[in-house]
Amino acid sequence: MPDHVFSPVTFRPRLWLFLAVFAGSIVGCSKSNEKVDAGPQANATQPKAILTKLISPAPQTVLPDKPIDLIFQNEKPVTLAVNRKPHDWEPFARPLWVARLALPPGRNTLSLDGKRIDVYVEKSPSDPAAPSGWKPLGFHPTDDLGPSRCKSCHQTTTRDQKVTVGPPEASKNCLVCHDPAEFELVHEHPLEPLADCSLCHQMHGATEPFLLQGPRKEICAGCHEPDRKPGENSQPQ
Known about the structure:
4 helices, alpha+beta, 25% helix, six-stranded mixed beta sheet, disordered C terminus, three-stranded antiparallel beta sheet, disordered N terminus
């Protein structure tokens, strides 16, 4: 018999082997497709990330002897304790949690779901008893008018007796009290690029002078070359 002709004895085992391998590859592809299809379903059941952020006050800072706002962001309910005593939240809509605190002078402990935050309320300006290394925390003044006080700077809406606080409207509200004509003299900078005051300032508490978010030189260097004088164009000609 010629070499290129398959005999029934040799062909049948090879045929069955081919069919077995082919069938196995089909089953494998089917299972692989099942895993790929199940991926999005599995991801859909995973919980969403929880927004958690302490806005104010910063831990281990020295606070003035006057009422302050504790501001916290979290999508789930949060328990608050002040010096180991439970404290109520004001009626703000999630994810915002706000409490107006009148802390006694000296060291105070705040607790958010068991997470400890230590602050010190000064007994007098430059209190010598304040913990070493703790910086004074300055705040922008606000009126104690309950939840409505936020609308001085923010867009706010009230629904179901809870206040929703939107983005700040700094470009409009800040200039009501701060004279635009004096801006360039004080800041040595044109007004328009810095109309959003939150670019440089932290209204809810800062350890730098003038409520700056950081050292002045570092903030200016974010847009300007350090060796250029105010008013000079930082863009190449």
